Structure formats: structure tokens, C-alpha cells
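User: Run a structure prediction on this.
Assistant: Running it now.
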Amino acid sequence: MNRSLIPSLNWLRVFEAAARNESFSKAGKELHMSGAAVSQQVLALEQSLGRPLFERTANRILLTPEGADFLPTVQISLGAVESKAASLFAPFRVERVTLLASQLMSLSWLPLVLADFERDHPSIRVELMMDGSQRRADPDLSICFGEAPNLVQHPGRLMSLSYGVVCRKEDLPNLLSLDDLLGFKLLEMTSHSMGWMGLLSHNFGPLPTKHLKLETVDTTPLAMMMVSQGLGLAVGPMPVCMPLATSLGLEICPLIPRTPGPGNYYIEHAKNRPQRASALTLAQALHTAAQVSMRN
């Protein structure tokens, strides 16, 4: 078996403290050791590696080029060990709940809701996964979307949707009539249950398609970013889109009232294992937050 270059991992901890403090005595105070003991352990590490790590002067120590190159690796490794130990062996047990949601949910409505939840439930951590991402196991909870009418009665129903026109604040003075609106490029998300034709027909009656300057966009977050850069207008599903729209400085155009649309979000629990109390607690918090969002 090959000889280990670092037979004592404590030498790395001592080396890191000495390098960071640029002093054996200061490192000793931090580690509750004498400066001489720190110097001896660093010397042992240097002898094992076969290279000096410090240049020693009468008043201070300086890293050699090899020591300076070695230090970041040592710091990253020690930090990784500390971080893993903290997550596995914390003073109180932390339960992890996995939650799967759509891209829009994950980038808009959920972050603030989950931040509030973890603040109020410090023993639970939520691991959020976006739909379509690679994952190793089925999530504890999934926020799903469907258009079947019977989903209104689904026991896990989270929220229904209404739709409005999302625009920049500076464009509001130029959106006073339907003709004004039709002068803009209209960003169409093919995944939406309510598109531009449905929204405008509901509020203004049938319109010839040739009057609409439509441009297809893959996702709602992408459409929101494009609107924020003055590249058009988008149909926004509310309330789920509002946190993202607000963060981008966007507003709902009052020309078109909030229009109820088809589809409901609902929560599904993992079917292949018992429901844990932590997952049920998260599900209840999501329902409460959704009720607040629907009222606003």
C-alpha cells in the first residue's frame, strides 16, 4: 500500500488556520493550541509532503507558491466536511420534503411561499424540483395542472386561474383601446389554456387572426422576460405569474379585466409510500398561501 502523504487530517486544519491568520500563535489561539504545537504540526505536514508550505521570518509567516496553491483545495475540502456534518448531525433533526412543480410555479409563486414556510417550520427543508428535471426518486408532493372540469372537486385542488395582459409600466399610457393593444407584438405561449384569441374574443368578440401580430414563445417566464425588455405583451396566468411579473417591474393592463380561464392547479401526494407529517404540513401551507393569493 502506498504511503499517505497526509497521515493526519488534523494537520490540514492546522495548516489552514495558520495560513489564514498568517501566524502560528494566532492559529493556536483559534484552535486552543500553543503556537509551538501549531508550528510542529505544520512542520510534520511539510516533511510528509516533501515541500515547505511557509516561508518563516522573525515576525511573520508567508505561504510559499506551493502552499498558496494548496490552500484553496484544503479550505474547500474542510468546508465540505463541515457542511455535510451540519446537515446530517444537526442538534435537531431536519426533515426534507421533495416538491415537484412546473417551471412557472418554481420561478414565480413558490419561492416566497417556501421561504415563509421554512422560516415558520425550521425543522423542515423543502427540496424544489422543476418539472422535466432529472430526479432520483418520486417527490413527496407534486403540484400538477389539468383542464378537466372535475378537477374543481379534486381534494388537493390548490388554485384556479384567471388571465390578464402583462405589460411594462411605461406602456400603460399607450394601451387605452383595443387598437392600441393590437399595435403591439403579442407573445403567445402554446402551453396556456387561455391564449390571445380566447382572451380577446371573450372581452371584445371574435377577431380575425390576421389582425393579431402573434409570436410563439416556449415558456411563460421567457415571455415575461421579453415583455420586460419591450418586445411585446403577454397573457399572464394569475395569481401564479404575479410574483415573477412584479419582480420584473411589470403590471396588469386594466384595459382587459381579469378573465377566468380553464384549468386548475392541484396537489398530488406520493402514492407508493405513507404520507409523512412534514409533507402534510407543507401541503396545508401551500393551500393556505393559495387562498391568500386568490383573494388578492
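Residues 163 and 259 are 5 Å apart (CA to CA).
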